[in-house]
Write a structure and sequence with these properties.
This protein is mainly α. The chain has 9 helices and no strands.
Length: about 190
């Protein structure tokens, strides 16, 4: 264990270090276990269990970080969006996030949200709220919730079609245009 690792642990940031290492392992495709994570972080095999009950709890924390990151990305867009074209940028941001963080995105959505994990439920709900609020700003009224669900489903579907190689994902500009065109076909079909 290095002095830096020891110092970081004693300053109370082991949880953050574990999450950072787990994130790197996840995105690199490295199969990680709690033991491998501890080794990579330079701590005892028992140390991660002070912060995470098990691997599932660690993965849930990674998902929370992902939901929070995606929400922050979407909140950085002009808000409220002025029109359907501006709203389509929320879909573009969603797909860009998925392609930039494929393993984390799959972890976020690859399994049912455990309703016993309050933080994960909160983070997923907060993401949903950002998207709903953006849709409701452009299309107020009783159909806003259904339209927000349709928009999220569209962005999510496009993200996974690209991640799974069903749609070409080599040209970022072409991907952005595909997302915009898809959103406009739904939001402004005329």
């Amino acid at each position: 264990m290095t002095a830096e690792t020891r110092s970081g642990y004693h300053h109370g940031d082991l949880r953050a270090a574990l999450l950072a290492n787990a994130s790197e392992m996840l995105e690199s495709g490295e199969n990680f276990s709690m033991r491998a994570l501890a080794k990579r972080a330079g701590v005892s095999a028992a140390a991660p269990y002070r912060h995470f009950d098990d691997r599932e709890a660690l993965e849930s924390a990674l998902a929370v970080e992902g939901f929070d990151g995606l929400r922050a990305t979407m909140k950085a867009l002009p808000s409220p969006p002025a029109d359907a074209a501006a709203l389509s940028e929320y879909g573009v941001a969603y797909v860009r996030f998925a392609l930039a963080h494929p393993a984390r995105f799959k972890l976020m959505f690859g399994r049912e949200c455990d309703d016993r994990d309050d933080e994960r439920v909160r983070a997923a709900g907060a993401l949903n709220t950002v998207f709903f609020d953006a849709v409701a700003a452009v299309f107020p009224g009783p159909g806003a919730e259904a339209l927000a669900t349709a928009g999220w489903a569209l962005a999510h579907g496009l993200a996974f079609l690209h991640l799974d190689g069903k749609l070409d994902n080599l040209d970022p500009e072409a991907i952005d245009e595909r997302v915009r065109a898809s959103f406009m076909a739904v939001l402004d079909p005329h």
